[in-house]
Request: fold
Amino acid sequence: MNFLAHAWLARGGSDDFLWGNLIADGVKGSDLSDWPAEVARGIRHHRRVDAFVDAHPVIAEVRGRAPERQRRYAGIALDLVWDHFVARELRLATRDSPLVTRSYRLLRSRPAPARLATLVPVLVEQDWLCRYADFAFTCRAIAGVGRRLSGPNRLAELVPWLEEEHARLAADFQRLWPEVRRALEVGDGQGGLRRP
Reply:
């Protein structure tokens, strides 16, 4: 799961909790004592989501279908692909989203950890969360992540397979996402809050 999916799962929490979920990939280590309690709780929640998804049988199936040379990188690509399907489910290509607005406000108002410092302003300025609804944009973003890794761009090499697999990946998402939501969604969209 990437920014949008993590934001959706954390939307029922406080702004600090949501921000912790959004910036967690930029935070190293298990000692979160320097972070405010709710931000640290958000970082831990993000990590629980990642662990749950990574261990899910659907992910093992999808990775098993990935081309062998790029299989090691499939998880990175899938994180963005899942955001594509979340964006489609939320119809972000055709309507404004209070969640996206709130996420961008938080990302603009607080400094991102160093590992995300150059990415976050671009993500906000170019409206990536809504643009993930466009699969071509998502594939370009995947290739862009691959350019930041050392060696050959294995993520760009995965794009033709992702395009070919789009319909199957959509079905995989429909098997995965409800289970992720049941296990790890904070808030029910009605103001309720389930504490993870």
